[in-house]
Amino acid sequence: MANTRERPCGRRSEPRTGSSLSLFRLLSLRGLWGLALAISLANGVPAGPLDSTGPTETNSDNVNLESKDQKKTSILDDFLASTKLRSSFGIGLTETFSDNVDLDPKGQEKAAVLSDLNVSANLRTTSARVKSSWDGFFTLRYQTAGDDEGFSLLPNIAGFSNVEAVEDLFFVDISSSVSREILNRREADTESNRDTVQTYHVSPYLVNRFGGFASAELRYALDLVSSGDDGGGGADNEVSDTTTQTISFALNSGIDFRRLLWSLTALASESDRSDEGDISRRRVTLDTEYAIVRSFSLLGSLGYESFEEDEFLGEDFQGPTWRAGFRWRPGRRTNLEVTFGRRDDDENLDTRLTYDIGPRTRLTVSYNESLGTGDQRLVRDLSLIGVDPITGRLIDLTTGLPFDPNDSPTSVTDEVTRSKTFQAAVTAARGRNSFSLNAIYQKQEEEGRLANPDDEEGFVFSGSWSRRLSRRTNFSFRGSFENTKFTLDDREDKEYSFSTSIDYNIFRNVNTFAGYVYRRQDSTLDSEEFTENRISFGLRRTF
Question: Considering the entire predicted model, what is its pTM?
Answer without folding.
Answer: 0.83
